[in-house]
Amino acid sequence: MDISLASSQYYQFSLTKSLPFSPRFHTPLRAFTNFSSKPQIYSFHSRKSLITGCYPSTAQTADQSTTPADDDDGFILEDVPHLTNFLPDLPTYPNPLENSQAYAIVKNTFVSSEDAVAYQIVVKKGSPRGVHFRRAGPREKVYFKPEEVRACIVTCGGLCPGINTVIREIVCGLNYMYGVKKILGIEGGYSGFYSRNTTELTPKIVNDIHKRGGTILQTSRGGHDTNKIVDNIQDRGINQVYIIGGDGTQKGAAAIYKEVERRGLHVAVAGIPKTIDNDIAVIDKSFGFDTAVEEAQRAINAAHVEVESVENGVGIVKLMGRYSGKYLHIFLLIFIELHFWSLRFIAMFATLANRDVDCCLIPESPFYLEGQGGLFEFIQHRLKENRHVVIVVAEGAGQEYVSNAVNAIQEKDASGNKLLLDIGQWLTQKIKDHFAKVKKVPINMKYIDPTYMIRAVPSNAYDNIYCTLLAQSAVHGAMAGYSGFTVGPVNSRHAYIPIQRVTEATNVVELTDRMWARLLASTNQPTFLNKSEQD
Ligand SMILES: Nc1ncnc2c1ncn2[C@@H]1O[C@H](COP(=O)(O)OP(=O)(O)O)[C@@H](O)[C@H]1O
Ligand SMILES: O=P(O)(O)OC[C@H]1O[C@](O)(COP(=O)(O)O)[C@@H](O)[C@@H]1O
Ligand SMILES: [Mg+2]
């Protein structure tokens, strides 16, 4: 099926089948329909645009075939905006990759406008084909003359392994693939647009930065002022903006895109998702996650060595990672926060990887301490059996317990994220007290809180490759005139995803998915599902 021109039947299908579920499963892709012959479809399209907040694209009209869609197979494209949506007369240029030595023998240098990446990879026979995103990669035509590109890169939010690699590869990708020479680094996050200096970025300057943790551009929280930022973009003559950051940053990127569109500027806005928390929806996982899981192993291993060398050793490892939803709870032994592919995911994956963890506590799976099936009972059992126990606790777990205990006022950081209370300290004390006062059994408590150590390291080999793909995909997308998009792997294939799609929901560990069951089967820890019986 040609996804750049679908039939009216397609639209009717998507209206009747998709609306009852969720508006975000609609695409307002103008290129899907033939407006001139089907005016009634146009009004439907407008409605959809309103519902979804997505953007129609006319970018593929030049490429689209005249073949109508085969049938109502339920194919839906959630498209990203294109500069021609509001600048319809933009000229195009041949992609310089046509003459690139690197691509000289590649069979298909350019990604077709008909290529899409399926959101759901596991389907039932006969089911609708479902939601798709545009496949990332170089396009035959670009909407910028390389010598006229003035790009900028900004990094926002907390650190994550691999940020420098992404910066490096954007600079090298723009320069080596497209001949772009003018690239600015905005220092200190969003506020750097209007309150800090910029720095020139060249392949030579960024040559070694992938070997360092952190961000050479520095980062910050708060300080997003859309108008001031876009004023600055205009004043500096910037026409490509690469924004590296997490869920908060991507919301900021969406606001910048909207303002750029409102002002009708020839400026492409590309988001590269970054977070150790893996709270970014849709994409498979965020860069740096793999490195962080690996780094967390060191803390867990240390806890294990300590507790197996003493009598009644209890090791708790707390792993970083916030949780934006409802706080559930935590655990003991090694406390690592895994966010699915990020922090609480880090806790989950670090536990799965390690095999020395007896119990992993994450916010999504509320735990309790006392009584049958509780954490104290489990620790006692493991101490009897193994003489030591290791608990990994995610930073966001058990927040309600700590909050009640210390009567804390919920504070927020400059970006408005809730500051987490220290579940690790609370849990440590509770366990010590229980075994000393109630059980009259002295335990050897070893609490490890590696906090920033798991995110301040350089990215590992896997993440370096991943960062390279992200950066190159972002560069190809911006050069091709796409804007207001986030790039990332969906079922292992890189795609352009509408920004609001990745900010509207947060990734959480789904207890009903098999992954959590795999962890439970691996640690043999309590499920804490019978809490109600204890109340
Ligand atoms: N809803 C929002 N709209 C615009 N900017 C936002 C929004 N939320 C956060 N930001 C900005 O994004 C930047 C990073 O956000 P933060 O939540 O600290 O980190 P992260 O992007 O890693 O989640 C900050 O400069 C913040 O001001
Ligand atoms: O860097 P800070 O301000 O101390 O914040 C710590 C938080 O940053 C993170 O590492 C990353 O959060 P973001 O992705 O939102 O930047 C969280 O896991 C952690 O709770
Ligand atoms: Mg965040």
Explain this structure.
The chain is 33% helix and 14% strand. It has 535 residues and is α/β, with parallel strands linked by helices. Strands 1, 3, 4, 6, 7, 8, 9, 10, 15 and 16 form a ten-stranded mixed beta sheet that branches. A four-stranded parallel beta sheet has the order 12-13-11-14, sandwiched between helices. Helix 7 crosses helix 8 and helix 8 crosses helix 14. The longest helix has 20 residues. The chain binds adenosine-5'-diphosphate, 1,6-di-O-phosphono-beta-D-fructofuranose and magnesium ion (MG). The site of 1,6-di-O-phosphono-beta-D-fructofuranose has 17 residues, from loops.
Rg from Cα = 25 Å
Helicity, as a percent range: 25-40%
Unreliable stretches (pLDDT < 50, length at least 5) are 1-70, 324-343
- Overall, the morphology is elongated
**Oligomeric composition of the shown chains:** single chain
Mean pLDDT: 83
- Structural class per helix/strand content? alpha/beta
Largest sheet entry: 10 strands, mixed
What is the overall number of helices? 15
Give the distance, in angstroms, between the N- and C-terminal Cα atoms: 57 Å
Bound molecules: adenosine-5'-diphosphate, 1,6-di-O-phosphono-beta-D-fructofuranose, magnesium ion
Strand-residue proportion: 5-15%
For the secondary structure, the number of strands is 16
